[in-house]
Each structure stands twice: as C-alpha cells, then as structure tokens.
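Task: sequence design from structure.
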C-alpha cells in the first residue's frame, strides 16, 4: 500500500524521532529490569479460592506491585504515576510479546499518518483511561470470604486504543491478518473493531465482574481493554474535527524524497546523469505533488482522496524514471 512505502514513512525507524521505536525499546528494557528484580527477590505467593479449590497465585514482588502496578491502595497513597507505569510491567514473556506485536504492526501503519506526538498522546491517554475504567470495576473485593486487592499490569489498554483508532481511521480498507500467526485472513478494520468491542464487553460482564466474584475469571482485564478502545475512538473523533486539526499540537513534517526535489533554479536534481524527462510535464507534476504533500502535513495522509493517492503513486514512477 502507498503508506507502507519508504518515501511515505519518514518517521518510522529512521533518523527522525519515532515514538513507536522508543516505546518498544522501553517496554523491553522495563521487562528486563522487572525480571532482574523478580529473580533477586522472588515472587510473592497469594492464596485465593477458585473453582478448582484453594490455589496459590504467584505475584510480582511487592516493591513492584505496590509502587508500579495499578492498585486502588497505591492511588490512595498518592502514587498517581501508577496510572501509567502499570503498562510497563508484564506477567510473562508471552504477555509482553503479544502486546508488542500489536503495538508494532498497528503503530507502524499509524505513526506516519498522525505523527509521533499524536501517537504518544493516544498511547498514554488509552493507558490512563484503561486503568481508570479497570479501577471502577475492580475496587477490591472478596472471593468466597477471602479478601484480595487486585492489581493491573500490561500495555494491552494502549494497544487496544491504537487498534481502535486505526479501525476508525480506515474502516473499509482491506487488510490481511494472520490468524493464530499462521492463517492469512482478509477483512475490513471495522469488523475487527466490532469484534474486539464484543469480546471485551462480554468478558467484562461474564468473566471480570461475575467471574471475579465467583473465582471463575479468565484473568484478562477486559475493562481496561474497553477503556482503551473507547479512548481510541474518542481521540479519532477529536483528531478529525476542525478545531483539533488546527490546534497547537505540531505534526511531523513529511520529508520530500530525492526524486521529488528540484533546485532553486527550477531545474531537476537527480542521482542519475541519464535522467531524461519533458521539463514542462515535470513542472506540472511537481506542483501537484507539492500540493498533496502540503495537504498531508496539514491534515494527515488519511485526508487524501483516492484520486490524490493515485496521482502521488503515478508521480513516483514518472519522476523516478
């Protein structure tokens, strides 16, 4: 697709700052530190009654759980930073891997269109909103008489927020997903959005709320997922409104690749000495390319019409001959 091509992806893993790259590196670094702390202090054992009887549950050390994971007790103690830091802790390697894969594959398609700054806002807004929604549902309760204080960790709320934004931005664009990371499946993002909404809503009521009271919870923070999804949708609505589009939040400028550049004298610049082209036609195409790039910088790639995308695609081939 056009937005996947190198000349349309100036912010992803290149010289410019990329929030996607920064957050992925940070997640890995945080998990390494977490693993070292767990290896040194060991895991805390917590006993609860489940459908299978009295079980021992291994939790991260209290120094991490009480200061960086999200709990109601931590907030009551004034540790407001836990609304964000919980997203840097994960239960295990697979928990981290699934979240990172979701953030990477969706983020690499989204960051070039909205910029690193807006992706950063979306990420942390979804994280905080997911944590708040989770706290509303999980305020500490008891399982058959044994009290417990639940805690939240993982970047899934942020991943869901990014996914929801992507689905709202491109609802009818055909995409290919690898089902179980093996089977290719073609579908439209709007059906993905409805799917995650349905799964999260069902899990909220029948697993997290009902199951949490009876010991039958699946251990997934569906409420945090919903908080992230709702935030992603609201942020998209704000981003396409006229007031938000012209706000003071700067966007990442789209750099013009070499084949689009012209010298100050009006003549073309090219890496090849054999470059031949009709000057008047090139000038006309160059003006249209400049107009389209200005529109991308002002409104984002998603604002382009299908005709403008095709024009930009044809221009690349014509000017690069």
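Answer:
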């Amino acid at each position: 697709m056009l937005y996947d091509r190198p000349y349309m992806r100036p912010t992803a893993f290149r010289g410019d700052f990329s929030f996607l790259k920064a957050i992925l590196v940070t997640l890995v670094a945080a998990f390494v530190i977490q693993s070292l702390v767990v290896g040194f202090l060991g895991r805390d054992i917590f006993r609860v009654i489940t459908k299978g009887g009295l079980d021992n549950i291994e939790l991260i050390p209290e120094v991490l759980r009480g200061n960086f994971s999200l709990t109601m007790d931590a907030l009551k103690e004034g540790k407001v930073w836990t609304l964000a830091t919980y997203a840097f802790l994960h239960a295990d390697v697979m928990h981290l891997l699934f979240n990172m894969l979701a953030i990477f594959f969706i983020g690499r398609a989204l960051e070039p269109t909205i910029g690193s700054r807006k992706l950063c806002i979306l990420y942390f807004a979804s994280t905080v909103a997911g944590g708040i929604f989770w706290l509303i549902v999980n305020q500490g309760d008891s399982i058959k008489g044994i009290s417990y204080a639940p805690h939240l960790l993982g970047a899934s709320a942020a991943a869901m927020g990014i996914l929801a934004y992507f689905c709202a931005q491109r609802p009818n664009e055909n995409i290919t997903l690898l089902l179980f990371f093996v089977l290719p499946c073609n579908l439209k993002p709007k059906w993905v959005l409805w799917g995650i909404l349905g799964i999260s809503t069902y899990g909220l009521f029948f697993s997290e709320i009902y199951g949490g009271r009876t010991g039958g919870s699946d251990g997934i923070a569906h409420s945090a997922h919903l908080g992230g999804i709702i935030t992603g949708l609201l942020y998209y609505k704000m981003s396409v409104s006229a007031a938000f589009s012209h706000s003071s939040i700067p966007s990442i400028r789209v750099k013009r690749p070499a084949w689009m550049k012209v010298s100050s004298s009006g003549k073309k610049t090219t890496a090849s000495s054999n470059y031949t082209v009709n000057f008047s036609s090139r000038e006309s195409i160059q003006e249209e390319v400049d107009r389209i790039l200005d529109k991308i910088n002002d409104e984002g790639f998603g604002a382009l019409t299908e005709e403008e995308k095709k024009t930009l695609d044809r221009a690349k081939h014509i000017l690069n001959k």
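The beta strands are 44-50, 53-59, 141-143, 146-148, 175-179, 183-187.
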